[in-house]
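Annotators were shown the component list below and the corresponding predicted structure, then asked to write short factual statements about the assembly.
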Amino acid sequence: MTSEISHQQHKVSFSSPRGFLTTFKSDLKETFLPDDPFSQFHDEKPHHRLRKGIQYFIPIFKWLPNYKFSMFRFDLLAGITIASLAIPQGISYAKLAKIPPIIGLYSSFVPPFVYAVFGDSKHLAVGTVAACSVFIAETIGNLVSPHDDPALYLHLVFTATFVSGITQAALGFLRLGILVDFLSHSTITGFMGGTAILICLQQLKGFFGMKHFTKNTDAVSVFRAVFAYKHEWRWESAVAGIIFLIFLQFTRYLGSRKPKLFFISAVSPILVVIVGGVFAYLIHGQDHGIEIVGELKKGINPPSIQYLNFDSKYIPAVIKAGTVTSFIALAEGIAIGRSFANLKNDQVDGNKEIIAFGLMNLVGSFTSCYLTTGPFSKTAVNYNAGAKTAMSNIVMAVCMGLTLVFLAPLFSHTPIVALSAVIFSAMLGLIKYDHAIHLFKVDKFDFCICLSAFFGVAFITMDMGLMISVGLSLLRALLYVARPATCKLGKVPNSTLYRDTEQYPGVAAIPGMLVLQLGSPIYFANSNYIRERILRWIRDEQSKFSNSEEDIKIEHVLLDLTGVSTIDVTGIETLIELRRTLEGRGIKVAIINPNLKVMEKLIASHFIDKIGKENVYLSVGDAVDCCKLSLQKLKPNDAV
Amino acid sequence: MTSEISHQQHKVSFSSPRGFLTTFKSDLKETFLPDDPFSQFHDEKPHHRLRKGIQYFIPIFKWLPNYKFSMFRFDLLAGITIASLAIPQGISYAKLAKIPPIIGLYSSFVPPFVYAVFGDSKHLAVGTVAACSVFIAETIGNLVSPHDDPALYLHLVFTATFVSGITQAALGFLRLGILVDFLSHSTITGFMGGTAILICLQQLKGFFGMKHFTKNTDAVSVFRAVFAYKHEWRWESAVAGIIFLIFLQFTRYLGSRKPKLFFISAVSPILVVIVGGVFAYLIHGQDHGIEIVGELKKGINPPSIQYLNFDSKYIPAVIKAGTVTSFIALAEGIAIGRSFANLKNDQVDGNKEIIAFGLMNLVGSFTSCYLTTGPFSKTAVNYNAGAKTAMSNIVMAVCMGLTLVFLAPLFSHTPIVALSAVIFSAMLGLIKYDHAIHLFKVDKFDFCICLSAFFGVAFITMDMGLMISVGLSLLRALLYVARPATCKLGKVPNSTLYRDTEQYPGVAAIPGMLVLQLGSPIYFANSNYIRERILRWIRDEQSKFSNSEEDIKIEHVLLDLTGVSTIDVTGIETLIELRRTLEGRGIKVAIINPNLKVMEKLIASHFIDKIGKENVYLSVGDAVDCCKLSLQKLKPNDAV
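Structure shown to annotators:
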């Protein structure tokens, strides 16, 4: 045995386990503070720390003092551009949420101010989202009809916004942004696509100038309703709608082809609204079947805190609408903030961003706004228009304030069909065929997750679609964990490397030995599988040799634990049991390169004592060399 | 660039991805058939295959033809021993389930026959389990009182057994034994311990010969009830109980110390029952406050299929009782079958075993039996008594049949206090202090999972305890996945190995480079974390160097993907984004040794095209050498 140890070139570290508090603190930190937000406070004087702390929690104090007029030029332009988008989108999405259109305008006034103070992202533009608007209408509309009792319905929407705000703020403070990560890109792609289809179908009502429609949101009901009320179709409305849509799609196409023409595509929605409004006013559109938005009062947001309604009859639906939309809004807002920050090499603190969204919606629910976040379309426009800081949000809010005070009544002439065209066009951009095709090519399971969200949303209900898709994602996460990959290693010719024999057909297995690489954590959910799998590798290997002429038995099983990130007690027990089983069959077990955490647990559970320190190696090469030596000792005539 | 490639000693395999069907088939196989049960059917002639197939599905055809009389000696002894245990345990556990004691005896007659035919394990002894008995009483007893309507209650217990059987058979046929793996050892230890405490407390009723008691099962209610009816305490009963308990514990102690005396501990329960019965009969125990079991009819199991009750009023509780107990029973039965098979180097096919349990309970529910499985205590006795095959179960069943036909009425004199002592003693063995201490030492989170099951069961309800504990286990599984370990690698002196710098303080980091090892799958649940973590590593590294004299910037980030078992589309997008971010800062990214699955997806998603094949290396050593070369090219004066 001693010769074996001396043969080992590289020493394995058996240092005694770190203290519980050390590991516990580091685990907590990795779980809740992976981005280490307080690293900037180290090594600072107290008053510096305080200033940095305030700047950390209220980012406006960080960027405003360094704000330069040269930046303001860019922010002004970007702010006006997104304001021009906020007016048609605000009115349209409010219609999707079945609340008065003015609420949509209010929602682009107060929340951007709040975000500019607390938000971390430089390019994010605040606004309402179509998907959340529809979800709110679906969930709360099931309980209270927006037509029969519009006041109560509106108050419940404010309450749902309040719930969203509380949920988001709590998630951020508790640093549970991790939960948002469980909405995968595939789920979001499918969900957005499904919602877009739904909303497009709903717009057929506006296109055809219909007065009656279904309350249901699934594709089949909506499609049926379009034809059920065929006698209400107005060709004038349809023609206007198609012209608007062609214009919008054409400018979008131009914008995407020639970046210089980007501004045309950015302002085309407001152009459609203005041209449509003037046109409807001049020809007295209402007499020709062209519906208009109707009354829009002058004046900025009235307070709405007194309307929050926590009646136990409505609270379950309100909580459902609030929490689900808060997650969808976060998934969109955080992802978008992050990806634009990445383009500019900035970093966004997810949990702080979540708090900013939460505060924005809390304040919003007190001031007649409904759910806002950082929608993709608006943020992209803001970025492309050259926004440098959150000042563009302030500019937008000021523009919206001016619009509310002076111009609001003018927009009452906007034809519904123009809004439908704006929504339709925006939604078409959300159906990402290419992304779905990419998913299909790269990962079929991801594609299924995406499709399940798409069809679930389009044909069942939005929450069912979301739940099925998230459920599938989690199932997959658990399957990864329950069925980790193992592979057999062989020696790469002319090197000291050992690699997967399936991946690298040229590598040579070592006679009498089986080198297995285990991946993933080993623990209760997969320890049985891992044991069975290792035993199967051994059976397969032995049956292979039993067919051949040579009579070489497996005498060593070497387990490469490099990829084993952690292990639990059930996992350790399985290894102990496995070793006992194999020793009973005359097969020796050695382990290779357990990492720090795994080694600590193996030492604490006396596994290392049982297996012997001489059977723990630092590299596959060391282990193979030692085992070869012992094979040669047993059979001195066989030169292995 | 070409010189870099030529410098690479070892070629990375970029073979085009395997076909979808190939990977899909292999994934399905790993998920549902990890133990490859059909491997034995390869390369066989059709009639051999048929015979092997029948032997596979009905194992008795495999072992019975080779059965020898020499084995029967052992099986006979073992069978009689476990029968002697089955009588007191059967009666006692039936009392726990609040059903007539005779049902407990029936349950050791039919099910062992069924198991002997379909079961795979050689040492497993069939019997009822205390934990499931109490759970059934708790769940169904909440709906129908076993005292007020004993017939309906009993019929619902049969129905729950039927549901258990169906559930188990379905799990086995669908090869979903994987679900049982999600009950970790820690959960089971805690759950069993908590149940044992509960049951011990309940036995105080029998010990003190009380007539009134609480319906609740939580520790506080039971403890309160014991003192609430203090006036019913009978000292005669308590004295007898303590004597019995001391005897049982003493023989158990003897048996554990001296293996030769094992038989004394195995038969001590039946001795207690017989001695107690004779004693109670002689002194007319009932006049002295010593309650007896009462009526036990002669005759074997009557059919009960006509009693199965699927009334919609009761079905939710019945389904709950049936499914939860089926899982508990499986967790115990499968784990025990496996561990005893391991001791003898046999293998047990989990899913086949589950089908056997399912059939056993289905047939049991038709023949007046309630839930049975392979309880630990009985199986250990069977193994220690020398059982060689499932024949010992047949011997036990025959003994039970004889008892039912001839001796049953004799056991009607058994004092309740003797049964309480038998239960109490069995339960004390289930509280594994040492295991809990082991958990505490090795893994604090496992300890918490165990404690939550223990306290949940003891102080809330059994199902809540189980749910909390399983929930914590799953949370942990997801946390592992959401927060995978990453570490920085450095070069081990005088070798080509690269290891964790934290674990091996002697290893040297390479100036200008950051080598990171990623573990676990990279996918939606952790991709944000991994990006943030890598960026933090780079920040930390750069701030370290900025403090020192030298001005060495990180120019290369090398990601060792050896431990990355798989990747999804979100994960790949994160890598692409990360690379763009880092290239923007002038940092080059290379990846090292992606495994087969990961490489296939990286190729399919064009990641490899984007990063360039020259930036994919087979080993850390290769990558570091190449990057050193490019560093030297940039700064010819710096000898790195």
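Statements collected:
1. Residues 63-478 of chain A form one domain.
2. Chain A has two domains: 2-18+483-634, 63-478.
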